[in-house]
Amino acid sequence: MSCPCQNPPAAEAGKKETKPERYVSFVGLDCDAKAAELMRHIRRYIDDPAHSNAFWEYFKKKAEGGSGPRPDDLFLVHSNLNQIRELFEDKADPEALALLDRIEQECC
């Protein structure tokens, strides 16, 4: 029996794939680069003491490996989706929210 991810059904063999399928492969999604870009959006706000709080200070410490091994950016984003969404909604940042939605759909 062959793997469906390597051998599409005959009816779909001639169709061109227009959107990467995250459940088959993460190839071409560049999730690490998207997560790094999102972290830049996050840091733009939380590095300013006027916009930080105890949670974001903990987040910064965790991102730097201050409470154990340094996690990668995608793990941090995935683990804190709701808090990140709230931050961008509070700051009315549609560009960052769109990137967060894309990462959530394609990478998490």
TrEMBL record:
Q: Does the keyword Zinc apply?
A: no
- Keywords for this protein: Nitrogen fixation
Q: Does the keyword DNA repair apply?
A: no
Q: Which Pfam families does this UniProt record tie to the protein?
A: CowN
Q: Record's superkingdom?
A: Bacteria
UniProt cross-references to NCBIfam families, sorted A to Z: N2Fix_CO_CowN
Which HAMAP family did the record assign? CowN
Function field? Is required to sustain N(2)-dependent growth in the presence of low levels of carbon monoxide (CO). Probably acts by protecting the N(2) fixation ability of the nitrogenase complex, which is inactivated in the presence of CO.
Record's family?
Belongs to the CowN family.
Instruction: Write down what this protein is called.
Output: N(2)-fixation sustaining protein CowN
Organism field: Uliginosibacterium aquaticum
